[in-house]
Design a protein that fits this description.
Blueprint lengths: L1 H21 L4 E6 L2 E6 H26 L1 H30 L2 H14 L4 H14 L3 H11 L6 H14 L3 H14 L4 H13 L3 H13 L5 H19 L5 H17 L4 H13 L3 H14 L3 H8 L7 H12 L6 H14 L2 H8 L9 H13 L3 H13 L20 H14 L5 H5 L40 H8 L22
Antiparallel strand pairs: 1-2
Helix pairs in contact: 1-2, 3-4, 3-5, 4-5, 5-6, 6-7, 7-8, 8-9, 9-10, 10-11, 11-12, 11-13, 11-21, 12-13, 13-14, 13-15, 14-15, 16-17, 17-18, 17-19, 18-19, 19-20
């Protein structure tokens, strides 16, 4: 209305200005009901426009008065919606904070106000009941959602969570299956089904589930690829000792496929190499390990590579291990492998040179064992003894824990494989169940025939620098020493004393 009045005034001003510029004010005459009015044309124009403006204002005022009830109704509805939104927001926050009583009060208030959003009211009522610990009421609220197509998925998820909390995995899987069949994008339902398949060690069903998730674009290709590689590995290990030749052949195929999908997955490479070697294909087994070493070196890989052949001399074996280390020369495991191959070849000088590249490494039990063997091979039994002593209290390495005391790599049970598969699929990193439980592993410290050498110099705390051994007390003279010691004891023949931690010979 204000804009219309401004337009009328502008038009009137323009008309008056035009009349003034022409210099002829003109004449206007109005006769009505016996009355006659004479005026100039400019005055008539102004009267017409002012009258129009007053008529417009009056008309708009009348309409505004007539629309007052509707405006009041809209204001009340808007205030109601605002209060409903506030009640819902505060209710969800209270439910998330675990304040069940406040959440229920706000849910009841929202039910009275939020007539336009019944779905949100039902969800809040269910979550408020959960927060209050009233599981039957929460189950009833979620069950009521199943009757509404747009709320069915939320109801199934709530019922699944309640079943899991109640310790009923079978019911939870049933709800997840319904949700997974209803929609193509329910990632939570897929993950619940995958966890159930992994818990049951049903690797084949888990593989099918991962493939369907990839087809539905629930997971990315890289996650699906890692999951398939880990599942193929677990399936291969499950079938490798089967009595039927057909199943053993499937185990080999699964292991090779896992190593192809993820060359850096050490369990897959180790299993594939073991099964290929058992099948009389050591060349292919070596190629699998070499490819894995390029991607992600692991101690289990070089040990498997070392044991692929048994008909070679130590020097030939050392050359073969050196070739493996050169595939990834800058990696820590490759530098350790260079020390190992020098020790296999019996080249103490080369072993000393190679171990010098590991001087900056943190001292672990495994590193202490490596240094001890190099020291012993170099003719330094006391230095080896110090390294052995340090290794007894040094921390262990997670990767080394993948080898059990018998030297078998990744000999995990089904529960460990389930955790490893899930973790590797999501993060691409290995977990180490044996390390987490603190179980015994393949010995990191060597069993060296170490003994005290009386003629050897004493070593400092670092195990390298010789330090003088105090044999005199400056406060006593020679006569005092003789008197204090008494008669000289009979000289005993030198004996070789074993370390306290060494093996004792049975008597």
């Amino acid at each position: 209305m204000i804009r219309g009045g401004i337009v009328v005034l502008l038009v009137a001003a323009v008309a008056v200005a035009i009349l003034a510029l022409t210099g002829d004010p003109g004449r206007a005459s109005l006769t009505w009901l016996g009355w006659r009015a004479d005026m100039t044309a400019a005055t008539a124009v102004l009267i017409v426009f002012l009258g129009s403006l007053l008529a417009t204002v009056g008309w708009r005022t009348l309409l505004w008065i007539l629309a007052a009830p509707q405006r009041a109704a809209r204001a009340r509805a808007e205030n109601r919606r605002r209060q409903a939104g506030e009640a819902l927001s505060r209710g969800f926050l209270a439910a998330a904070a675990g304040d069940g009583s406040e959440a229920r009060r706000l849910a009841s208030k929202a039910a009275e106000l939020a007539v336009d959003t019944p779905a949100l009211v039902r969800v809040l009522a269910a979550q408020a009941a959960e927060a209050a610990g009233d599981r039957p009421a929460a189950a009833g609220a979620y069950q009521a959602m199943l009757g509404f197509p747009d709320m069915r998925l939320a109801g199934l998820k709530g019922l699944m969570d309640l079943a899991l909390a109640a310790g009923d995995p079978a019911a939870a899987v049933g709800y997840a299956e319904q949700a997974y069949a209803q929609t193509r994008t329910a990632r939570w339902a897929w993950r619940a089904l995958l966890d159930a398949r992994l818990a049951a060690a049903d690797w084949t069903a888990a593989l099918d589930l991962v493939k369907s998730a990839l087809d539905r674009k629930i997971v990315s290709p890289i996650i699906a690829e890692r999951a398939r590689a880990a599942l193929f590995t677990a399936l291969a290990i499950q079938l490798e000792d089967a009595p039927e030749p057909k199943l053993r052949g499937q185990a080999l195929d699964h292991a090779v496929e896992a190593a192809r999908l993820q060359p850096g997955f050490a369990p897959a490479a180790a299993a594939a190499a073991r099964l290929l070697a058992r099948d009389g294909k050591p060349g292919r087994a070596a190629a699998v390990i070499e490819q894995a070493w390029k991607a992600a070196p692991h101690p289990a890989l070089w040990i498997a590579y070392r044991d692929l052949r048994t008909d070679e001399t130590p020097r030939e074996r050392a050359e073969r291990l050196k070739g493996l280390a050169e595939l990834n020369p800058n990696h820590r495991e490759s530098r350790i492998l260079e020390v190992e191959q020098a020790l296999v070849a019996g080249d103490a000088a080369l072993a000393r040179q190679a171990v010098a590249t590991l001087s900056d490494e943190a001292v672990s039990a495994r590193m202490a064992g490596v240094f001890a063997r190099v020291a012993y091979a170099s003719g330094q039994p006391d230095e080896a003894r110090v390294w052995m002593a340090r290794g007894l209290t040094a921390p262990h390495e997670p990767d080394w824990s993948d080898l059990d005391p018998a030297g078998r790599a990744f000999a995990y049970d089904a529960a460990d494989w389930a955790r490893l598969i899930a973790a590797y699929a999501e993060t691409g990193a290995l977990i180490h169940p044996r390390f987490e439980r603190g179980e015994r592993t393949l010995s990191e410290l060597p069993e060296l025939p170490l003994s005290y050498a009386e003629a050897a110099s004493f070593l400092g705390p670092d195990g390298r620098e010789a330090v003088p051994y105090p044999v005199e007390d400056p406060g006593l003279g020679d006569d005092d020493l003789a008197a204090a010691e008494g008669p000289a004891p009979r000289r005993r023949s030198p004996v070789r004393r074993r370390l306290a931690s060494g093996r004792r010979v049975a008597k």
